[in-house]
Specification:
The protein is an all-alpha fold. It has one domain (6-443). Helix content is 83%, strand content 0%. It has 18 helices and no strands. The longest helix has 38 residues, at 270-307.
Amino acid sequence: MTRGSLFKGIILFSVPLMFSNLMQIFFNMADLAVVGRFAGAIALGSVGSTTILVSLYTGILLGISSGVNSVVALFAGAGNTDSVRKTVSTSFVISLVSGFLLMGIGMIFAPSILEMLNTKQELIGGAILYLRIYLLGAPALSIFNYGNGVLSAVGDTRRPLRYLSIAGIINIVLNVIFVIFLKRSVDGVAVASVIAQYISAILIFRCLILEDGDYALHLSDVFTRQGRMSYISRRVAAQVLGIGIPSAIQYSLFAFANLFVQTSINSFDHVVVEGHSAASNADIVVYDMMAAFYTACTSFIAQNFGAGNKKRIMHSYLITTFYSFVIGLVLGGTFMLCSRQFLSVFTNESEVIYWGRAKLYVMGLSYCLSAFMDNATAAARGIGKSVAPTFMVIGGSVVFRILWLVTVFPLFHTTQSIYLLYPVSWIVTAIPENIYFFMCYKKLKFSEPS
């Protein structure tokens, strides 16, 4: 990360991570595909109605793991092996606690949130059942994201992909068994996802336990034989949470703003909701493929920040922005051209496909614009700046979107007037975030390595 070709290094780092991200969201997508094809549109709408809440919970855990990734990369770049080991141990405790907290809070409040979202009466029962089962996997999801954050910080993105691939195959097999052979519905696909998540978590946990490098997880560093904590650093915890909590808030804010979007979508007929749910799988695919370059941006910048390579910080930012823009444009165009075939994976009802295509036609050419906003945030995170970008997101992607939904949307009351708020809000947020990063970059002062 600190020497050699950045164009090549970022690609080699990001491609496995792209597929890792894709496999991680594949759990929920496989659930939608199986229930939509074999359990009907109502089951599809039930699972689809939980997508935003699943994204909210996942986003919080991704935010915490981004703090792990940034701090491990920073110390690894500086060659501080003792701090790397402390970060790995401390972050394990943080991630484990976060997973169980999220599971408990979600179990209690998720049904109330679904009701507040005006989830259709015919969908809410299945949505609550699916979500409560799915949340049982939150601790496993947290541990996997923690392990993924540690490994990607030191440049290893291949093993997480391997573990998710194994879990993804198991998820598909279990979906088929539960839904097609055992005639289960949303409960069957939820159980399949939870099992797959725990398998991926066990695999990555085992990897870190058996690792010989400085980033190995030593359980003796976490608990002594007497049960007292050791090798847990408050200073490191503050660093991880200082980046992780604002990042988690930022991910959550996107999902929070989208709750208002879902409420607006729920004002239409249930086939519109089901079409939106099916098309939203394209959103997740594109965002998560682009997010691989955001992780690369943070990791490369953090390591070069630790190593004092100022020029490589800027070059890392520009290259990852370019790559993420291109992948967003290519994927978005592909989903537009193949919209009918893509939506047919999730449903065979023509009216649902029609409304799904209505979304993809608007979003297809817009996804690439999000690169300028999200990568600027990732770059700022790499140099330890996470709070200010969060406030910018609040203004540009939360407040702005809510204002749009209470002003522009009522004037037209069309799905297009909802979907257009995304590209506009991305531009509104990207401008101040890029200005902020460039200002912070100019203030960085350390000697360039010879």
